[in-house]
Design a protein that fits this description.
Shape: globular
Number of domains: 1
Distance between the termini: 38 Å
Largest sheet: 7 strands, parallel
Low-confidence stretches: none
Structural class: alpha/beta
Mean pLDDT: 98
Number of strands: 7
Helix content: 40-55%
Bound molecules: NADP nicotinamide-adenine-dinucleotide phosphate
Radius of gyration: 17 Å
């Protein structure tokens, strides 16, 4: 079977992506860091769509955990492949730079950027062998325009945009596409401390986006129809920034 692996699939955008890919018929491997209850809810909702869904907990920021979990996954699935990888796990720890602590910088770099590297490197081998793959990286408006108070977060998302474009050229000949999705403000746990009422006046659409709207775009990029889109960054932000 051709699986989809979604990092940070327990909640928010990642959960909606798991469900969209499940609707498209993909069995899903749902990665998460610690929130087993939420991940289990995603699993049940995905299975209700008629596909196999399994939990795959590991910390994307830990090269040892990524290596061990994915090695075990491949060993337990000798006839299956991971055809779709959605690098979605991410955190923010905002602070203006003058007050930013070393840990705020390194935690965000380790999870958002290094996590993308550890997971993608591991999954790529199977895709190269199969000569098929879809890699979709969840970046952000913050990585395109920069947002004050988010130098750490903006740096990770901008770095992944560069890596997306480089990797797309490395693997394109093997029918593997690598694209990035750049959401603006999406209503999830990550943005629940933000004041939507005051921020929405800046957004031409007049509201935050939904995880399902982002998932629909990810689903398209994962589909056969998107085979000729490679190395792109697609914004989804209600017209806030282009
Ligand atoms: P969220 O609701 O806070 O969910 C974060 C997800 O990432 C959870 O599933 C969490 O797992 C997982 N995660 C965090 N650290 C992890 C780690 N070290 N290893 C494995 N999983 C980890 O976030 P979201 O809003 O859905 O954001 C998803 C992605 O979209 C992120 O990359 C974010 O930067 C990006 N994004 C979001 C927005 C927005 O407005 N929401 C805008 C632009 C970009 P647990 O449940 O176990 O904690």
């Amino acid at each position: 079977m051709k699986y989809a692996l979604v990092t940070g699939g327990s909640r928010g955008i990642g959960r909606a992506v798991c469900l969209r890919l499940a609707e498209m018929g993909y069995p899903v491997a749902i990665n998460y860091a610690s929130n087993r209850e939420a991940a289990e809810e995603t699993r049940q909702q995905a299975e209700a769509k008629g596909v196999k869904a399994e939990l795959l907990p590991f910390d994307v920021a830990s090269p040892e955990e990524v290596e061990q979990s994915l090695t075990e996954w491949y060993a337990a699935h000798p006839h299956d492949t991971i055809a779709v990888l959605v690098n979605n796990a991410g955190i923010r720890q905002d602070s203006v730079m003058i007050f930013m602590q070393d840990k705020q910088w390194s935690d965000v770099i380790n999870t958002n950027l290094n996590g993308f590297f550890y997971v993608t490197r591991k999954v790529l081998k199977g895709m190269l062998t199969e000569r098929f793959g879809r890699i979709i990286n969840m970046v952000s408006l913050s990585g395109l325009k920069g947002l004050p108070g988010q130098t750490n977060y903006s740096a990770t998302k901008a770095a992944i945009i560069g890596a997306t474009k480089a990797l797309a050229q490395e693997v394109g000949a093997r029918k593997i596409t690598v694209n990035a999705v750049a959401p603006g403000f999406i209503a999830t746990d990550m943005t629940k401390d933000l004041d939507e009422k005051s921020l929405k006046s800046m957004i031409p659409a007049g509201r935050f986006g939904t995880p399902e709207e982002v998932a629909a775009l990810v689903g398209f990029l994962a589909s056969e129809q998107a085979a000729y889109i490679n190395g792109e960054v697609v914004s989804i932000n209600g017209g806030l920034y282009t």
